[in-house]
Automatic annotation (TrEMBL):
This is ATP-dependent Clp protease proteolytic subunit. GO terms for biological process: protein quality control for misfolded or incompletely synthesized proteins. Belongs to the peptidase S14 family. It comes from Lactococcus lactis. It holds the Pfam family CLP_protease. Signal peptide: none annotated.
Length: 261
């Protein structure tokens, strides 16, 4: 049985290069599609450790998994939150590590504009969250209203609670002792920041000249460390290239004082 590591941010296909540049794990619809094509109908396992991400990417992944001809088993190895729960809704069988966590909540977005824009955004979010609530309700065998209430409350489940709620079928390795743990969501880059980073990678200059990224303290430390590592690597490469191009001391005089062959 083939296994796909469903790790990191659930990202759109076009955003993968940015996460790769930062050395951040991500999973995209194309990665899932390529995996399923290679599996060619063989039973597959989707091993999930993801804090979620793009709803549209997650929806595309849900569709591909739902249409897959072989059996799909979803296993939560760590955290399974937000859009990362979509494979649970498409799988034939689901399991969770004794120390796994599941979280469901409403669809969210970033919107700017006047009251009309905000009203439109609210309608979109209500509709999108309602669609997801219906899928959760079907999976957990509860009313859509109850599923929506759990999403409104941003509900977290440990392994035992996830099975009791019906969002997961079984606890893996049940002979082991279950340990409750805290897990944080993956730092998801906003579409605006994704585009700014893409422009930087292409060497294009934005009129603002700056990039304004807001993360919490822990996420900022992680991103700062990754950026420092990238900068150090680039500096080291430039230094090596400069040394290779720079003549050795007195090298220009060697033709004159090189002796007789």
């Amino acid at each position: 049985m083939k296994t796909l590591k469903f790790n990191g941010v659930v990202a759109d296909n076009s955003d993968k290069e940015v996460y790769d540049w930062f050395g951040m794990e991500c999973i995209t619809p194309k990665m899932v599609s390529d995996f399923l094509n290679e599996a060619a109908g063989e039973d597959v396992t989707i091993q999930i450790n993801s804090g979620g991400g793009s709803v549209f990417a997650g929806s595309e992944i849900f569709t591909d998994l739902s249409k897959y001809q072989g059996k799909v088993i979803a296993e939560i190895s760590g955290i399974c939150a937000s859009a990362a729960t979509f494979p649970l809704l498409a799988a034939d069988k689901t399991g969770i590590s004794p120390i796994g966590q599941v979280m469901i909540h409403n669809v969210s977005t970033i919107q700017r504009g006047d009251y009309r824009d905000m009203t439109d955004a609210s309608k979109f979010l209500l509709g999108s969250s309602g669609n997801v609530a219906e899928l959760y309700a079907k999976k957990m065998k509860v009313s859509t209203e109850k599923a929506q209430k759990m999403m409104d409350d941003e509900t977290w489940f440990n392994a035992k609670e996830a099975v009791e709620a019906g969002i997961v079928d079984e606890i893996l390795f049940e002979d082991n002792h279950s340990v409750k743990m805290v897990a944080s969501l993956s730092p998801v880059l906003s579409p605006e920041k994704i585009n700014q980073f893409k422009n930087l990678l292409k060497g294009e200059k934005k009129s603002s000249g700056t990039i304004d990224v807001h993360f919490d303290d822990e996420q900022m430390k992680q991103l700062t460390a990754m950026i420092d590592e990238k900068i150090a690597a680039v500096k080291a490469e430039i230094q090596v290239n400069n040394l290779a191009d720079k003549p050795f001391k007195n090298q220009k005089f060697k033709p004159m004082f090189g002796g007789i062959n």
